[in-house]
Amino acid sequence: MGKMVEYMPSCHSTNDSARELISNTAISEGHIVITDHQIKGRGQRGNSWLSEAGKNLTFSIVLKPSFLAVTEQFYLNMVASLAVRNGIADFTEEAKCEVKWPNDVFLNDRKVCGILIENLIKGTHFDYSIVGIGLNVNQLNISVDRATSLSKEMGCEFDLQLLLDKILHHFESLYLKLKSGNGVWVKEKYLQHLLGFRELRRFKSEFEFAGEIVDVLDSGKLKVRTQSGMQFFEFKEIEFIWN
Ligand code: BTN
Questions:
Q1: Do 100 and 213 meet the contact criterion of CB atoms below 8 Å apart?
Q2: Could you tell which of 10, 12, 15 is best to mutate to test the pocket of ligand 1, judged by most ligand atoms within 8 Å of the CB?
Q3: Which whole number is the average pLDDT over 98-103?
Q4: Is 118 left (phi over 0), alpha (psi -120 to 50) or beta?
Q5: Beta carbons of 222 and 101 less than 8 angstroms apart
Q6: What percent of the chain has pLDDT over 70?
Q7: Looking at residues 50-60, what average pLDDT do you find?
Q8: pTM exceeds 0.90, yes or no
Q9: What is the mean pLDDT of the chain?
Q10: Is the CB of 44 under 6 A from ligand 1?
């Protein structure tokens, strides 16, 4: 990861630039596209991703996960969010840093990183996967609800390059585990660091209810034990109620 780096002082979206590279060049796995200033950053479900120039990490990793069936796509979400979580945890031992289903990273119960994975599919398998990562690092002025940055939480500045190197290191080792057939191990680690795992919490879906996250299926569905039995939720069908 990161042996080939495409650095741009500014761009619209690193995911879009990565996609252009894929269609115009023979790009190898692990290629990184990174920018200091992302002008039209994209988030989940058509939202935009705002990031102050020069303060944060905004980058995309190009993968060729042809070993993975399309139905196993959630393993990439696990690898990506866990890699960021582990990279942050290397610098913030005393803080609570967790992955939040499906693929955000939370620091002290606030969102510090969002991930947008976009796939180019051939038949039943992946041709390319673009893993876009937006991590709030040294930005202090954050107006989005329940969002934060490393600096806000820890009260100091972080070296962007060092942090990137750590994340890429973890990403590579988790991805190689997955590639060598150790998906079960990756999932175990994901669950070990999953916000709310095996804790009684209040959730909101169609109704408000109490439940305990007990698993994440290969399809990515969240399995929650509730008073009325096990229930399964797709992305955006369920959210935490924060007190
Ligand atoms: C989310 O909505 O939580 C996902 C945000 C993903 C943002 C990153 S920043 C780098 C990459 N390029 C984009 O346009 N989006 C992703």
A1: no
A2: 15
A3: 95
A4: beta
A5: yes
A6: 100
A7: 97
A8: yes
A9: 95
A10: yes
Q: Indicate which atom in ligand 1 lies nearest the CA of residue 113.
A: 3
The Cα–Cα gap between 173 and 189 comes to 13
Residue nearest to atom 16 of ligand 1 (CA): 132
Under DSSP, is residue 161 helix (H, G, I), strand (E, B) or coil? Answer: helix
User: Which residue from 15, 5, 11 is spatially nearest to 118, judged by alpha carbons?
Assistant: 15
pLDDT at 5: 93
Centre of ligand 1 to C-alpha 49, Å, is: 6
Q: Is the CB of 106 under 6 A from ligand 1?
A: no
- Mean pLDDT across the stretch 29-50? 96
Residue 18 Cα to ligand 1 midpoint, Å, equals: 13
Q: Is there an atom of ligand 1 within 6 Å of 60 CB? A: yes
102 preceded by a cis bond (ω within 30 of 0):
yes
145 vs 165: CA distance, rounded Å:
29
Going by the DSSP 8-state scheme, the letter that residue 204 receives in this structure is E
Res. 124 pLDDT band, cuts 50 70 90: confident
Other Cβ atoms closer than 10 A to 228: 8
Cα-flanking dihedrals φ and ψ of residue 83, to 5°? -60, -40
Pocket test for ligand 1, best of 47, 84, 116 (most atoms within 8 A of CB): 116
- Rounded Cα distance, 225 and 198, in Å: 9
Cα 206 from Cα 221, distance rounded (Å): 16
**Confidence class of residue 113 from pLDDT cuts 50, 70 and 90?**
very high
Joined together, the tokens standing for residue 189 give: 């680690």
Q: Is residue 2's pLDDT more than 80? A: no
Instruction: Evaluate: CB of 41 within 6 angstroms of ligand 1.
Output: yes
